[in-house]
C-alpha cells in the first residue's frame, strides 16, 4: 500500500538532497576533517537542495520537507490528500540515499570506526546519517532549536513568490532557497545538527537501524529521536503564521497596488498593432493584457 502512494519525483528530490549531504558528512568524518570541514557538509546540503528543486520544481513544486508540505497544506497551497504520499516519498528517498552513501563509503566508515558501527564515542559514525544532540543540550532547548530553525525557513521562503512585495525571479528561487538553508545550517547546527526536516532525519535513522547500528539510534540520549520529527512540524506552521500576521496581512491588496504605466502603454500599443488578438474569446483578451 505504501508503494502505491509513493511519488517518484518526490523520492528523487530527497534522494539527491541526502546523497549530497550524507556523502559530504561521510567524507569529512571518515577523513577526520582532512578532506573537508563542517562547512563542506553545510554547503553540500545546500547544493542538494538547489539541484533537487531544479530537477522537479515543474512537476510537484519541489517538496523536500514534510514540515514545508504540512505548512503549505495549512495555507491551502497544497491539497491535504497529497500530504501523506509526499511525506512517505520523502522518507523513502532519504532512506535509499543513505543506503547508497553507506555502500560508497563502506570501507572508509569501517576503517574510521575500527570495524564497529557505534552511536557514541570518538569513533561513532551514526551522525553521518542522522542528527544527534550535543552533550550539553537539554531536551527543551533542543526542541526550541528545531522549532526556531524550521520557523525561520518557512518565514523566509513564503515571501519569494509574493507579487505584492518583492518577488524573486522564478528561475532563481532554487539557489535562493539553498542559500537560506545554508544560512540556517551555518548558524543553527551546533546544538543538534539543524535537521529542520523530519524526512531528512527519519529516513537515514531508519537506515542505520537496519544496517547494523541497532536500536540505539532511537534509544540514545533518552529517546531523543522524536525531537527532529515533531519540532519541525510545529515550527513550520508557526513560521507560516508569523509570516501571515507580520508580512502578508500588512501588504496592500492588488487593487491598491500602483499600476505600471509603461507596461500598460506597451500592452495597449501592441494590441493596436495586432487587432486580431483582441477579437474572439475572453481568453485571448486575457493573454493580451496580462
Please specify the SSE layout and strand pairing.
Elements: H1 8-30, H2 38-60, H3 66-74, H4 83-104, H5 106-112, H6 139-157, H7 173-187, H8 198-213, H9 216-223, H10 227-246, H11 261-273, H12 282-289
Helix pairs in contact: 1-2, 1-4, 1-5, 2-7, 3-4, 3-10, 4-8, 6-7, 6-10, 8-10
Can you walk through the features of this model?
- The chain is mostly helical and 290 residues long.
- The chain has one domain: Glycerol uptake facilitator protein.
- The chain has 12 helices and no strands.
- The chain is globular, with a radius of gyration of 22 Å.
- The C terminus is likely disordered.
- Its main location: membrane.
- It is a multi-pass membrane protein.
Give me a quick take on this structure.
With 290 residues, this protein is mostly helical.
The CATH homologous superfamily is called Glycerol uptake facilitator protein
Structural class: mainly alpha
Arithmetic mean pLDDT: 87
Strand portion, in percent? under 5%
CATH architectural label = Up-down Bundle
The separation of the N and C termini measures 44 Å
Radius of gyration: 22 Å
CATH class: Mainly Alpha
CATH topology: Glycerol uptake facilitator protein
Shape: globular
Query: What's the story with the biggest beta sheet?
Result: none
Number of helices: 12
Family: Belongs to the MIP/aquaporin (TC 1.A.8) family.
Protein name: Aquaporin 10a
InterPro entries: Aquaporin-like, MIP, MIP/Aquaporin, MIP_CS
Organism: Xiphophorus couchianus (Monterrey platyfish)
Characteristics of this structure?
290 residues, Glycerol uptake facilitator protein, 63% helix, signal
